[in-house]
Amino acid sequence: MEHIDLLFIHAYLLTMQGEGVGFIEDGAVAVRGNLIADTGTTKDLLEQYTADRVIDASGKVIMPGLIDAHIHTGDALIRGVSQDIMNWMQHGMWPFTNVLRKDTDAVMKGSMVNIIEALKAGTTTFCDFDSPMTEIVQNHIKAGTRARVAEMVNEMPKENKSKVGELYTFDPEQGEKKLQRNIDLIRKYNGAENGRITCMLGPQGADMCSQEMLLRIKALAEEFDTSIHMHVAQGDREINQMVKRYGKRTIQYLDELGMLNERLIAVHLTEATDEETEYLASKGAGMVLCSGSIGIIDGIVPPSAAFLRKSSRLALGSDQAPGNNCSNMFNEMKFTAILNKCKAKDPTVYPAWKVLRMATIESAKTIGLGHEIGSLEKGKKADLIMINMSDPALCPVILVPVRNIVPNLVYSAHGNEVEMSVIDGRIIMEDRKVLTVNEEEAVCEAQKAAERIAAQAAVIFEDMKDTPLMKMMERGEL
After folding, report:
1. Is the dihedral of CA 22, 24, 25, 26 positive or negative?
2. How many angstroms separate the CA atoms of 324 and 292, rounded?
3. In DSSP terms, which residues pair with 230 in a beta bridge?
4. What are phi and psi of 182, to 5 degrees?
5. Of 79, 188, 72, whose CA–CA distance to 446 is shortest?
6. How buried is residue 474: exposed, middle or buried, by Cβ count under 10 Å (0-12/13-18/19+)?
7. Is the pTM higher than 0.90?
8. What contacts 234, CB < 8 A, 6 or more positions away?
9. How far apart are CA 340 and CA 410, in angstroms?
10. 277 sits in which H/E element
11. Are 47 and 66 contacting, i.e. CB atoms less than 8 angstroms apart?
12. Is residue 302 reached through a cis peptide bond, with omega within 30 degrees of 0 on the bond before it?
């Protein structure tokens, strides 16, 4: 018999192998080092392996860890400060971000709390898109999470004072500094932590970067052989900027620059037409759908159904705490399924099994890690979660005549049912306790930093008394 490190037995196993969810009723997973050594029935694996630790997963689901394909962990300290208004960014976010971006300590403390929040809800891989990422990535290294990171590159001035509808002014010097940080990130951290940390290039959006900057990023992506993680057609604000500056919409513009290809991970597509979305998909680009964030910020269901008509490279992301208010991929799965059913007026679209794949194996393929994560199979990285199906929200488990496990994970789970997380073969959370960082201390430090940021933002809001948020405060609505 072969000896391994971890052996999970008697689980309801969802491997995500094949076209569906790869269900095995009395399933087992063998882990050696940071890799999955085997999957199969409990009977078969007990006959083949002995282990340093055998974990009885009776009444539990074992499945691949969830992948958050687009998250800004550095924005966590401004959760809930810009909701239920139009022009969410200009009238709510910018006063806070103008302060937050000058305080790296606050960004770091918020990021760590955001990572803990997501980790405890089953996220094991983070596509973290923020600044300064050379600092934020240290949180992922400490927490033990898998991270595919990018520095947010734009040419916006230090303090953005553009009014709604005005054409942005660019500051090439700022853009150069940010691009150099992205290059430094790739050179220092791509492949770090035994491959647990990988890097991408991160232009914030076509409306926030000059043509020269985007062409340099395109060339660098080829040089470093990596992906480009970018907001695309992110709301009418972006489209208005593009039409004013270039006389064309975002997707046409990117196509003319030669950027619509398999390297591009296009986030949101909020204002893309079905035709533009299908065209982008046909060119090989991936899409990240952030249903909760775009639903709250814009009241829009992005055209992911059009994307799926041409490509399966569709991933899910939580976006950011001040946009979505939570970093929970169970929340994203439920939002995605329900909003798209309503949009299509068809309860058969976005079935639970398909949405579960979008948060695991399809996300892995979209972000360029499908060969390593996203499914439980021999040779892949040992990233998995164990979910308590005896929690009241997931009870009862029914196997015949119809299995209810997958629908209940998508439509009923809250995330707190995740009991254990294994990343790269290492137990990072057990019995709901994160083992790598002090959660209580992290929350306390983040609260102090948030109070500091809010006090400084209050000065800016003194000149914004006629904005929607300030009117809501006056009326006692917040």
Report:
1. negative
2. 6
3. 266
4. -65, -40
5. 79
6. exposed
7. yes
8. 205, 267, 268, 270, 271
9. 14
10. helix 274-282
11. no
12. no
Tens-binned pLDDT, residue by residue, of the chain (478 aa): 999 999 999 999 999 999 999 999 999 999 999 999 999 999 999 999 999 999 999 999 999 999 999 999 999 999 999 889 888 878 888 889 889 989 999 999 999 999 999 999 999 999 999 999 999 999 999 999 999 999 999 999 876 666 667 898 999 999 999 999 999 999 999 999 999 999 999 999 999 999 999 999 999 999 999 999 999 999 888 999 999 999 999 999 999 999 999 999 999 999 999 999 999 999 999 999 999 999 999 999 999 999 999 999 999 999 998 888 999 999 999 999 999 999 999 999 999 999 999 999 999 999 999 999 999 999 999 999 999 999 999 999 999 999 999 999 999 999 999 999 999 999 999 999 999 999 999 999 999 999 999 999 989 888 888 889 989 999 999 9
In this predicted structure, what is the pLDDT of residue 93? 85
Secondary structure class of 44 (helix, strand, coil): helix
* Angle (nearest 5°) at CA 293 between 258 and 156: 55
d(CA 14, CA 20): 9
- Measure the CA–CA gap between 344 and 340, rounded to whole angstroms: 6
Task: Name residue, tokens 């306790």.
Answer: 433
What tokens appear for 275 in the block? 């035709």
Bridge partners of 123?
Answer: 66
In the numeric block, the tokens 């606050």 are attached to 106
End-to-end Cα, the chain, rounded Å: 63
In DSSP notation, 435-466 reads: SSS-HHHHHHHHHHHHHHHHHHHHHHHTT-TT
Place of tokens 């329900």: 338
Distance CA 472, CA 470 (A): 5
One-letter amino acid of 263: R
Rounded to the nearest angstrom, the gap between the alpha carbon of residue 219 and the centroid of all alpha carbons in its chain is: 25
For the chain, how big is the Rg over CA atoms in Å?
Answer: 22
Q: Which amino acid is at 88?
A: W
Nearest Cα residue to 288 out of 148, 113, 107, 88: 148
Please name the helix (run of DSSP H) or strand (run of DSSP E) that holds residue 150, with its range, or none: strand 146-151
Torsion of CA 434, 129, 369, 139, to 10 degrees: -30
CA atoms of 473 and 478, how far apart (whole Å): 6
Distance separating alpha carbons of residues 63 and 416, to the nearest angstrom? 15
Half-sphere exposure of 142 (CA within 13 A, CB side): 16
Tokens 């029914």, located at residue: 398
